[in-house]
Amino acid sequence: MHATEVFGQFAARYHRTELPETVIHHAKRAVIDWYAALFPGLGAAPLAQLEQVLAEDLDRGSCRLGNGRMATARAAALFNGSAAHAAEVDDSFRDAMYHPGAATIAAALAASQQAGARGLDFLRAVVLGYEVSTRIGVTLGRAHYRFWHNTGTVGVFGAAAAAGYALRLDAGQFAHALATAATFSAGLQQAFRMDSMSKPLHAGRAAEAGLLAAQLAHQGVTGSLDVLDGELGLGRAVSDGPDWSDIGATLGSDFHITRLTFKNHVGCGHAFAAIDAALALRSQHALRADDICSVAVATYGPALDIACYTDPATENEARFSLRFVVATALVHGSVRLSAYTPERLADPAVRAMLERVQVAVDPQIDRAFPGKRSARVEIVTRDGRCHGWFQPDRKGDPELPLSDGELEDKFIELAAPVAGEGRARQLLSNIWELERAGCLAGLAA
Amino acid sequence: MHATEVFGQFAARYHRTELPETVIHHAKRAVIDWYAALFPGLGAAPLAQLEQVLAEDLDRGSCRLGNGRMATARAAALFNGSAAHAAEVDDSFRDAMYHPGAATIAAALAASQQAGARGLDFLRAVVLGYEVSTRIGVTLGRAHYRFWHNTGTVGVFGAAAAAGYALRLDAGQFAHALATAATFSAGLQQAFRMDSMSKPLHAGRAAEAGLLAAQLAHQGVTGSLDVLDGELGLGRAVSDGPDWSDIGATLGSDFHITRLTFKNHVGCGHAFAAIDAALALRSQHALRADDICSVAVATYGPALDIACYTDPATENEARFSLRFVVATALVHGSVRLSAYTPERLADPAVRAMLERVQVAVDPQIDRAFPGKRSARVEIVTRDGRCHGWFQPDRKGDPELPLSDGELEDKFIELAAPVAGEGRARQLLSNIWELERAGCLAGLAA
What we know:
Order of helices and strands of chain A: HHHEEHHHHHHHHHEHHHHHEHEEHH
Strand content of chain A: 5-15%
CATH class of the largest domain in chain A: Mainly Alpha
CATH superfamily of the largest domain in chain A: 2-methylcitrate dehydratase PrpD
Distance between the termini of chain A: 38 Å
Mean pLDDT of chain A: 96
Oligomer: homodimer
Number of helices of chain A: 20
Largest sheet of chain A: 4 strands, mixed
Strand order of the largest sheet of chain A: 4-3-5-6
Helix content of chain A: 40-55%
Low-confidence stretches of chain A: none
Number of strands of chain A: 6
């Protein structure tokens, strides 16, 4: 049986099974975190431009952009998927090197709004999208992550599976939706190794592609069921020919959606263990910026490949500069949206600190990637003392999760400046009640 | 200078230069052949399904589907790009292993209709799309063609360049349009190694992706300009790290659009030299099916990789069965649309002949691929004689081109059953006059 068919059979069983209450709870946490990422993304590039381009598809249809404007389903998926990834605060599933929420929830929402779904069914669509796509991402493995941006390439499966649930695809249709999504899969890492606006579009295109694949399968369009594991399939084309035989092993028993990472800082998540370590040292030793002579960061290879800018000139580059975010943490005590304003980009204190930060790969930490995202920071102070901290996990990882309260605080901090605090709190309350909602009118997007 | 920038600078110069009359003539031939492919594609899978899925985008907008229905620009690009590849009779640029027309002309048409362009500007958009995308396809080379379907992956550049011309992008915007298109690039060969409906969708998605990339660049969206030739760029991700340094060498002097292959049979073009050889032997020796004991076909490797079905059960499989199309040619004397009807799929004479056809790779012929698409056929007859024929090029290749009259015959044969002969002849006449048309109202789609 091909991997697409394994998922198809699971999806057919899934229609008829109830979900554990804790899984529903985690699905709501994922939706809260998705909105926390969506709101600041609405104002980031390239969303204003995308809204212009989508003019033909707006102020009509049964779906909504994150800013409340009506839209066709595919336009809403494209826009909201992009917006939810644009501020770089969206969730991730660590072992898949993948931000599952952006595309999956955008497509789940568009397909569910179009279908007039209940709240619970929307949440169930989200769960299914996470379960299918994270397993495909895990299987594609680290070799895939060399050239490809999983949030685009793997995101299509999250979107197709979630939309497939909303459309009530049968086992065969669901397998064909994934097969069609696979051959729409795209997104290169090079697209954000130079300052550009491409990265959020990967998530938006994945949401739209997965939705389209599910809609086509619903109409009877077939794909190649061996497109993942076949001789020339995705596994060989974009990775090192991984083993698909266990793809369904834990489906329905181990719910990946319960093991998400929610970002506790703003920026590239690969830098977060280093930020946590720097903040721990800062707090523990009451360090002031002026005290610090040198900062040595050791972490895993892809963190330096991706958070690679040594002297960032733009907001985007700063988000992907491990040196910049560690320097910001040490100078200002946090790395939030305000870390990337023009003033802060030019801040002499941050720039001076950045000069003192050295980064390197630690082979032992690197070997534990992607399962562990660790960093070690050593700080030498002017009085000649050396302070070290090893951060095994990031705050926000499943081992050090954000509590519901911390997640709410993150949501309000990011949503309120855009939506207003009253509307943000109402939305939060509506999401916590979502499994009992008869429709999705209580959602903002 | 990155490859995207080389093309951007060429595009900016191209706005201000006239095209040789012969290039305009070849552009009109490409448009005629595109419509010849479009009409039979309208009735093929998965176009009816796609039309259902696009319901939100139809009966509005300023563009048209091939069946005349109004549509938004992106929906028209997606639908027409898919339709033009669905019947497998669209053009190719041999050295790029690529069908340039399907996506390029679909996007050129959508963007030109939306912009209210004149006929000449539409033709100029088509030319630019062919020139840019065929060069990228040639550079990606044979290594790319192992896993990827160039009509999808390379098609995005044809569409982006053509739409970029219609939108009058400046040098920088044009480069960014290509950069964004690159990271939308998708389409796996595995998607048609099993009977499926994915293949035409690759061309449609490419048309839509390239159009979107150009529209985004027009609004100021930037991509990574090093996304083709960078360390993790498309050239390394999907090929063997090709050399991009000559990418602009012949731009503006050697017009690739003058060297297209137009299909003279219906089906996978990799089988055509073998069909030509079989038809030559059949005619030269007045062979009847009953006379034939055995047929040995020798050709290049990818022909057998792609036209791979040994015992085709469906229309799609038959189109990609070298054995089937050679058997059909020998029994019926031609391989046209009628070759793939259910009756012909089950035809005992074809099935009996198919059993007698052996296929193999000839190393010398294989080494000349993709520049040459040759085949050798040897037929042993019941009276013990052996007849051989080496076909160096395919009828329809630049070395053996269809005359304008032969192209018109192909167009009428394929368009008239769908559009009616009167409308088909009117459209043909309108295309031949296109460079003098003040608008695109004379085009059917």
